[in-house]
Amino acid sequence: MIFARNPTIATPFVAPLFTLLLSVVSVTAENHVSRVGDIPEIGLGTWLSDRKKVAHAVEYALDSGYNHIDAALIYRNEDQTGKGIALAGVNREDIWVTSKLWNEHHRPDQVEAAITKSISDLGVDYLDLYLMHWPVAFVPGEGTKIDEETSIFDTWRAMEDLVRANLTRTIGISNFAKKDVEDILDMCNICPYAHEFETHPYLQQQDFVDFHKEVGIKVIAYSPLANTNPTYHSGLKPILQDSFWKYMADKKEATVPQVVLAWGLQRGTVVIPKSVHEQYIKENLEALDIKLTEDDMKAIAEQDKKTRMNDPGKSWGVKLFADLDDPTDLDENAKGKEL
């Protein structure tokens, strides 16, 4: 069993359900020295960032005070994200870089090749965090055909080896249901450092966020600005036009995105807003300066719509988020695996 050795990465905790995991929440790659001990609380997201614009966005963000970049192989822009990191001229040990293992690379013999490609494309020697992007394995080379022979446990064991090989300082998960998380905690030797999942004012999932705090796993909130993503079609009014949030922004003399991000930060989640626009990149960082009162937080809690924006489960024939708010709604006749 491998124990966490860097107290800036993992602090021992007492969790009633997982007392046997006290010191194994994460482990760092021993050969990499980093001046960024813990994951920075705000980062630049790169999902759906235009390949022609993402390099400048990353460079500008790093030049403007960001020290956290969130990437993934499936975003198909990691080479340009890496170009932006190089253009910024920052020292590797001064930034946090996250990437993700795509579904078709879950077979244990493919995991190392996948992270190696991401590391190469990003132009870094190692990652700070490598996430299993979804708890779903695809058969390599066969599109979204589900690989019934490869479990998340098989994949996790291979990911643990990435830490031992000093390819990443920590590992984690993304888009898992609560039971998925518990199942990984029951078997891990090197346990998840972080869980990246969708959470924002319209899908707050406060109980799920609190659960992660109890077991010592960081929460990274993707799509922290809810339905500002142009690919989302939830039927809800865009949060930028929501009268409640416009009122909160006026009250704080800030923009709606700044206040929404400040809420995410204040509830203890890491937020990774995506933008390729200099103005918005800079404004998003200023959310760190906004403080919400206890009454503000209570009022925001009442705005929860329990509406999920990102759910590919139906197209994959898989019921995702089974024990969470707004799970995948498979057709009655659809054959699907519950995750």
From TrEMBL:
This is NADP-dependent oxidoreductase domain-containing protein. Pfam families: Aldo_ket_red. Keywords: Oxidoreductase, Signal. Residues 41-302 form the NADP-dependent oxidoreductase domain. The keyword Translocase does not apply. The active site is at Y75 (proton donor). Substrate binds at H133. It comes from Daldinia eschscholtzii. It comes from the Eukaryota.
